[in-house]
Amino acid sequence: MACALLAGASACVSPAPPRGGVIGADIRLPIDTSIIRGRVPRNITFEGLLRQNAVQAEVAASMAGAARNVFDPRRLKADRSYRLVKTLDGLFREFQYEIDAERLLRIVFRDRGNDGQPEFDATVVPRPKEVVLDTAEAEITREHPSLVGAFEAAGENLQLPLELAAVFGGEVDFNSELQRGDKIDVLFQRVTSDGEPAGYGDVQAAVLATGGRRLTAIRFMGADGKAAWYDDRGRSMTRQFLKSPLPFEPRITSRFSMHRLHPIYGTERAHLGVDYAAPVGTSVVSAAAGTVIAADWRGEAGRMVTIRHGGGYETSYLHLSAFAPGIHAGVHVAQGQLIGRVGATGAATGPHLDYRIKKNGVHVNPQLELSRMPPGDPIAASAMPAFVKARDAALHDLEALHEPRK
User: Which of 250, 261, 289, 354 supports an S-S bond with 278, CB 3.0-4.6 Å?
Assistant: First the structure.
């Protein structure tokens, strides 16, 4: 395959498959078309992209006119992939452009009109997709200390570590508990289109080695037709509380303490929660299902949400910049539901979340209390044989697909 760099867009020219069959093993039909693949450069028009690839001006204008029937050429976006098919003597045959993850713009040569000018058909078609099982491995290192960074270093995008953080959210606080050398292996469905990654399907299994523990998560479809996550012994991965009400990029800047020097007032005060530093606007979610008992301004605490949960627990989320829509006293919230955004309201030196837990009316250390949460409920005995079969198959696939990469 011959490749050429075209005005900032990397484009590769390759011969298209021959039309028709091959008669006899030693006979090859001549190749009469070439394919140019590339990505849309910045600050270029639809016609400019075509002319950059040696499409004649009048042909490019006619193609743009045909495209307007189904797609606005002004919405051409940088870094989206495209594919151009031409004959070896330079005549246009077909153009495809990636509108989004689901759709392609396709323009094909139809005929020449009475005036001799080329005419084209333009349609928006679904992107052909293939779903295959794949694996990925990520390791926490000095250079990549977060789950997102570790997976980006492994060539994956944000979607995969976000889903894994949700899977292990009741077991691991990804803000504070990850250590260098921790590893995670994951078995998942990879979606491809035209041989290129186009997203992820369902995660099937994952194994996380952290802090001397080996945590296994298996996706299993229950009798109710809903998928849920279980450990290798068939216990639910869902806990009453998430380990953290924030995404896993923020860091802990102040822990629970009865004697802390206040950063604003300079006096020793009890700090009855955990402070997470995070940018203004970062999502804050409810750590457990419950009922909002307050969502208002609370002096030094700024905008604050307090939620009552089962088992005598209450959680509070302080210094918010905003409340999520619909969050007010009396409303029920689900575990993981958005309740507000990180801010610096009230007595705060910078944007952060002060997260607090009360048990039976007394403030407790969130990190210590969450570490004592019991394991999840076990899977029903009647479903255990099917679960064991699914678990063993998933772990076998994880090992078998991962082995060739070692």
Answer: 250
